[in-house]
Design brief:
mainly beta; single chain; globular; 3% helix
């Protein structure tokens, strides 16, 4: 037993090397190529062993018993390579240069290719570098990534919405609209690939069900690059964004800075329906939300300096400032009696404004200990401050009552601060790789809700409806991971342990909630590749999804006199088990998966019949289970014409305890289908067009049943002036077909709302590049998983 533990935590490779074949794989620009498959055949043309190059482009076949072999490299990005070699016992290293796979067709020379999907032992790599979608921004690229769907701006991977976004394996400390703005302002030309990690290895945070890692191109060429961009969006109302990004590299110093400012009006249509069988009434309201944000600011600055040949230090600052968003909702509600005759009505006028400020500062040091090992130290701090004020006036005209009006105000303030530090160690040999690390983080949140209502012409503070909520959370984690490649088999396994110590204090009524627990998160992967390049894979992973900090706040946030939202300070963390079987062959990628969630937390609704209130609140349901299949294939019909088919079919079950105390089951077969086709319209690939279709069949979320929806889109972009100016036109939701019905119907619960999020419209964008066009993005510093819960 001790021998196995020693092998896991402190591997030492000792080979009695007699004969070997080593080399480095490069492209035509002499850049080292990683993750390229190198195959070794004997004199009888039988496969002896296959391995992948490491991050430095190196490979090595060792302990060879024969003398003569044949090396083969087949990669879709490059022309096939074959070479007869002799095994030797000296240190001679082969240098292999792969030529680009360029195809000539009638009158058209294409240097850009379709996106390449590559299956690795622990992830699916979607390589978009130099592809026909690299001109899009990072947000649009995610929409085209296999197994990824974006429905109403909500990211999902194979049906699961608990998704962590990283850039170069570094956590992005933004969520929601802030995250979307960041990715929309990230140039696709700077993106190398997107990695879909449905079972993240132990080095990743245990938080979240899946990881989407955006791999950026490295800044290797010295010089200056500037990018001036603007975007106009016309839906129901207009929105616009303009910004400047600048990149500079000289000797050991790399700098990157960007600033974007947005403004516009956001619109959303809702119609609500609530039936109360006890008194036989039906309440129907119409709410058209219109909010203006005149000054949305996104700032990012990164500096990287090579202290010496082995040590690099990085400093990053990112900020999001929205000093004022405001709007006034006029919401009429009509009440029908059991004979379907209008007997009462009321109108709510909600006048509100809000402010959001997010500041993040990170510092990282990377140190190469030797040729095979390295160490990283990362520190970061984040502060998120938000305020929201609303003045709600209601005119009541109820049957058998005199007309009257009520008026209340709420002020909601929230402040979140988090700090984290971590160490990561990596040792990488030719066939084995070890990763280990530790992390500590501390989070503190303060939330305050002040409620006042109008009594005899003046507002009076109501402590029974106000609240103070203080929350503290300590997290400590250690992990280790070991990967081993042997012939046609690739194996990887790891274990992560996380300790959570939390305390939540509620002021009214006074309540203290404390919890302390350790959790273990194992992962395991296996991949087998046949001689004919059929790839079979298996993986298992255990994850945790902790509730957002705002979900823990028990204060009642009122929408109107009869409806409010409320969190729960006793929310449990969700434990997620993922099981995957994969198959890949000639760009066919198929996944069979099973997902089990214990006590998933989510927003649901329930009716309080005694006072006709409709309450939205976050809670834990009993469990959720899903199994399904995911399929992705990119067909190259012609060198200038691609067709992409992406399908995901899933059976999903949610078990929840209803308001009557009975256990209920909500289940559905769900299909998500994406079909798109793209064309290259001129010989230099500067003019491209794409049309596509997305379909979402009915889905569920706890008590909710969500209706189907579909949308069609059109994209065209072209470059001008020696590719310095790029113009793009996008028409989304062409037929205005994305309205959804979200309903709850069981026992005495009967309510739904129709929701349309203003998706039909067009976008026109311009981007101008100046300076050295070869300069690429600097590395983004690692970010914290706790930020996902802001």
């Amino acid at each position: 037993m001790y021998k196995y533990l020693l092998c896991l935590f402190f591997p030492v490779l000792v080979f009695s090397q007699s004969q070997k074949i080593s080399g480095t794989v490069l492209n035509a620009e002499k850049q080292q190529l990683d993750s390229v498959k190198v195959e070794l055949y004997n004199s009888e043309n039988i496969l002896v062993e296959s391995i992948f190059t490491n991050s430095a482009g190196n490979f090595s076949f060792e302990n060879l018993s024969a003398q003569s072999f044949k090396l083969k490299i087949n990669d879709e990005k490059y022309l096939s390579f074959e070479k007869l070699v002799d095994a030797k016992n000296n240190n001679e290293i082969l240098s292999i240069i792969l030529k680009n796979n360029q195809k000539d067709i009638e009158g058209v020379t294409l240097t850009k290719k379709k996106p390449l999907v590559k299956r690795k032992v622990d992830r699916l790599e979607f390589n978009v570098e130099n592809s026909n979608i690299s001109s899009l921004n990072a947000w649009e690229i995610l929409k085209k990534t296999p197994q990824v769907t974006i429905n109403n701006d909500v990211l999902a991977v194979k049906g699961g919405t608990s998704v962590l976004i990283t850039i170069n394996d570094k956590k992005v400390m933004m969520t929601g609209e802030e995250l979307k703005n960041l990715l929309e302002n990230t140039q696709g030309n700077d993106v190398k690939s997107v990695e879909v990690i449905t079972n993240p290895p132990a080095k990743y945070e245990a938080e979240g069900g899946a990881v989407l890692n955006i791999v950026m191109k490295k800044n290797k060429i010295e010089g200056y690059l500037g990018v001036l961009s603007s975007k106009y969006v016309q839906t129901q109302y207009a929105k616009g964004v303009a910004g400047l990004s600048q990149y500079y590299k000289k000797n050991k110093l790399s700098l990157m800075g960007s600033y974007f400012r947005g403004t516009g009006t956001y619109y959303r249509e809702e119609t609500g329906y609530v039936s109360y069988p006890e008194d036989g009434t039906t309440w129907i309201n119409t709410m058209n939300r219109k909010d203006k944000a005149k000054n949305q600011n996104t700032v990012n600055f990164n500096v990287e300096y090579e202290i010496d040949s082995l040590t690099t230090a990085s400093l990053n600052y990112s900020g999001y400032f929205n000093p004022r968003s405001f709007g006034t909702y006029n919401v009429p509600t009509v009440i029908y009696n059991s004979q379907n005759i209008v007997e009462s009505d009321y109108t709510t006028i909600n006048d509100h404004h809000s402010r959001t400020i997010n500041n993040s500062l990170s510092f990282q040091v990377d140190r190469k200990l030797n040729k095979k090992s390295s160490l990283s130290w990362i520190n970061y701090f984040t502060g998120n401050n938000s305020t929201k004020h609303q003045n709600v006036l209601t005119y009541l005209n109820f049957v058998n009552q005199s007309p009257r009006e009520t008026n209340f105000m709420t002020d909601n303030k929230s402040d979140v601060q988090l700090y984290s530090t971590q160490f990561d160690y990596q040792w990488k040999g030719d066939k084995m790789e070890l990763e280990a690390g530790t992390k500590y983080s501390f989070v503190k949140t303060d939330s305050k809700l002040d409620f006042s209502d109008n009594e005899n012409g003046s507002f009076q503070y109501r402590p029974e409806k106000s609240s103070l909520f203080d929350y503290k959370e300590h997290n400590f984690a250690v992990y280790t991971s070991l990967a081993y490649n042997i012939g046609k088999w690739n194996f990887k396994g790891g274990l992560r342990a996380e300790m959570t110590d939390l305390e939540g204090i509620v002021s009214e009524p006074y309540e203290v909630n404390k919890n302390n627990y350790w959790s273990l998160f194992p992962t395991f992967y296996a991949q087998y590749t046949t001689e004919n390049k059929h790839e079979f894979g298996f993986s298992y992973g255990k994850r945790i999804s902790r509730p957002s900090y705002s979900w823990l706040n028990p204060a009642k946030s009122y929408y109107n006199l009869f409806s409010y939202y409320q969190g729960d300070p006793k929310l449990k963390a969700t434990i997620i088990h993922n099981l995957n079987f994969t198959y890949s062959f000639k760009n066919w990628n198929v996944d069979f998966y099973y997902r089990k969630e214990l006590f998933p937390s989510m927003e649901i609704s329930f009716q309080q019949h005694e006072n006709n209130n409709l309450v939205y609140y976050y809670t834990n349901i009993e469990k959720g289970e899903a199994f399904g299949m995911s399929l992705y294939k990119n067909f190259e019909i012609k060198p200038w014409w691609n067709l992409i088919v992406s399908e995901n079919i899933e059976h999903n079950e949610n078990y929840f305890t209803g308001i009557d105390g009975a256990l209920n089951k909500n289940q559905v077969w769900n299909l998500v289908s994406t079909i798109s086709t793209s064309f290259t319209l001129d010989k230099s690939s500067d003019w491209k067009m794409e049309v596509g279709h997305n379909y979402y069949s009915p889905a569920i979320q706890g008590t909710f049943r969500i209706s189907s929806q579909w949308s069609a889109y059109f994209v065209m972009n072209r470059k001008f002036f020696n590719k310095k100016l790029e113009a793009a036109f996008i028409f989304n939701d062409i037929f205005r077909s994305t309205q959804q019905k979200i309903s709850t119907k069981y026992g005495n619960q009967d309510n739904y709302f129709l929701d349309y999020q203003d998706t039909q419209g067009f976008t026109f964008s311009l981007k101008y590049n100046f300076g050295n066009q070869s300069v690429k993005n600097t590395k983004t510093i690692k970010k914290a998983d706790e930020q996902e819960r802001l």
